[in-house]
């Protein structure tokens, strides 16, 4: 872009906006001062920034026809082959469509981003390809990744393979349908309030939200930088662990990453069994107002099966868990909108800024009337509460996260993991397109009371299918201390090996 130097009229408009009450002489003086600032901006504009190299060839791909797009799960099909002979050689992977794949369209479920084509690969994309995976394309996701259901994308609802009248879960909705149907071996989703784990529970597969910062978010469109997690979705535990092994670790470009362990071996204990594991069942994760009896019963039965496998399973209350979702809410609400207003990156952090995305997102207000009701509800809530309390509630919630995490860690000092339902209900019916705002928003946000607290605290959480209710999958969530992913995989693998959830 060309940097235009500000003139007197620009300074006058700024003065009126800021309420500085400058005199004409002062405005003239400041206009002169701005010329030197503009020259520095022009120098920066003329320099070429360093972007991560794009190493693997690919084509822009194609938009699949409806008959070639089961469950409306794909956004773009574009096959990118990774390094021959790597540890993920031949593994078919889908990417959620907020993950950048250079040269391939990305719209993040939003009509306002139609036509955007990233110029970089996300770090996790490069790592998948280095490990030999085959990226099959970009999967649909929910509009700006706000919904936990699968009905809000600008391209229409994603349907659950177990019952196409029902939600596949969101916001990683296309990934959900592709993994659950076996059309891919694994997918990379993102999770700010449960968007990897909710689909795993609704559609019956393994979903891991790892420790905050473990997987670099570089090259992924952010939602709220203190909640952003990239996670792995797969049909089985071993594949999940293999993929996490490939994409985890520091990249030097994501300030969310700090003090990560280097001795990661996520699949090392998959055959160790459940004997000796200490598991705390959290009663506050059951019996929500919208909890379904069949879901709670299936998860309690799964806990009893882990006890049969030799784990020590006890019930341990964590009363503050009942307020965890409330603590998450101001962070997600105000933080998401602040991120949008900052053109997705804001300021005051040292990460990779993808300026092409900033340009593409810069006119989002011009499209706000077209946003779905769940996005509008977040905008309205943030506008009101930030206006009334000037960000203090957001700040207080962030401070309370430390107390919430300490409450979980107090129990985890004596146990290896916590256990509760992933979501309180089985996959609900997709709402009608013309339903009112209350039903639209309710369906989008009704399910994350148990999942959201672990985005705020950053603790790793894994959803595994543990049984069925009325013929639909039920997810059991296991939560560990920071960087306890291998332990969670061990417990999940023991359950998976001993029980076929589809027959329970």
UniProtKB/TrEMBL annotation:
Keywords: Hydrolase. Coiled coil: none annotated. Its EC number is 3.5.1.4. One of its GO terms (molecular function) is amidase activity. PROSITE patterns: AMIDASES. Residues 80-488 form the Amidase domain. It is an enzyme of class 3 (hydrolase). Transmembrane segments: none annotated. NCBIfam families: PRK07235.1 (NF005565). This is Amidase.
């Amino acid at each position: 872009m060309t940097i235009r130097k500000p003139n007197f009229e620009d300074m006058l408009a700024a003065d009126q906006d800021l309420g500085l009450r400058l005199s004409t002489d002062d405005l003239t003086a400041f206009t002169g001062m701005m010329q030197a600032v503009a020259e520095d901006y022009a120098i920066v504009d003329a320099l070429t920034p360093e972007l991560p190299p794009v190493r693997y060839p690919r084509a822009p791909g194609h938009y699949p026809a409806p008959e070639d797009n089961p469950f409306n799960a794909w956004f773009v099909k574009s096959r990118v082959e990774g390094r021959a002979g790597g540890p993920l050689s031949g593994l078919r992977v889908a990417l959620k469509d907020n993950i950048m794949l250079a040269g391939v369209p990305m719209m993040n479920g939003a009509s306002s981003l139609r036509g955007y084509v990233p110029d970089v690969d996300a770090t996790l994309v490069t790592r998948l390809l280095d490990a030999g995976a085959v990226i099959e394309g970009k999967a649909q996701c929910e509009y700006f990744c706000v919904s936990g259901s699968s009905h809000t994308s600008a391209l229409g609802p994603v349907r659950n393979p177990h019952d196409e009248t029902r939600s596949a879960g969101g916001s990683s909705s296309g990934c959900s349908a592709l993994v659950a149907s076996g059309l891919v071996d694994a997918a990379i989703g993102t999770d700010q309030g449960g968007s990897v784990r909710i689909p795993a529970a609704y559609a019956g597969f393994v979903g891991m939200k790892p420790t905050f910062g473990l997987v670099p978010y570089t090259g992924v469109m952010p939602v709220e930088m203190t909640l952003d997690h990239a996670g792995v979705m797969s049909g089985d535990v071993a594949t999940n662990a293999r993929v996490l092994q490939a994409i985890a670790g520091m990249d030097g470009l994501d300030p969310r990453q700090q003090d990560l362990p280097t001795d990661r071996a996520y699949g090392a204990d998959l055959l160790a069994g459940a004997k000796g594991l200490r598991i705390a069942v959290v009663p506050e994760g059951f019996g929500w107002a919208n909890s379904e009896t069949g879901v709670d019963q299936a998860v309690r039965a799964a806990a009893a099966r882990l006890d049969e496998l030799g784990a020590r399973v006890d019930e341990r209350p964590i009363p503050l868990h009942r307020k965890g979702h409330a603590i998450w809410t101001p962070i997600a609400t105000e933080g998401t909108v602040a991120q949008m207003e900052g053109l997705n990156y804001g300021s005051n952090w040292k990460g990779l800024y993808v300026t092409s995305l900033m340009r593409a997102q810069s006119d989002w207000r011009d499209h706000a009337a077209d946003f779905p009701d769940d996005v509008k509800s977040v905008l309205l809530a943030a506008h009101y509460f930030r206006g009334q309390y000037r960000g203090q509630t957001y700040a207080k919630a962030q401070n309370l996260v430390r107390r919430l995490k300490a409450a979980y860690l107090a129990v985890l000092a004596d146990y290896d993991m916590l256990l509760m339902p992933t979501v309180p209900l089985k996959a609900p019916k997709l709402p009608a397109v013309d339903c009112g705002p209350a039903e639209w928003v309710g369906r989008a946000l009704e399910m994350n009371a148990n999942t959201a607290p672990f985005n705020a605290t950053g603790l790793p959480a894994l959803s595994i299918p543990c049984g069925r209710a009325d013929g639909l999958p039920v997810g059991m969530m296991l939560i560990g201390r920071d960087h306890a992913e291998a332990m969670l995989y061990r417990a999940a693998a023991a359950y998976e090996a001993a029980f076929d959830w589809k027959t329970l």
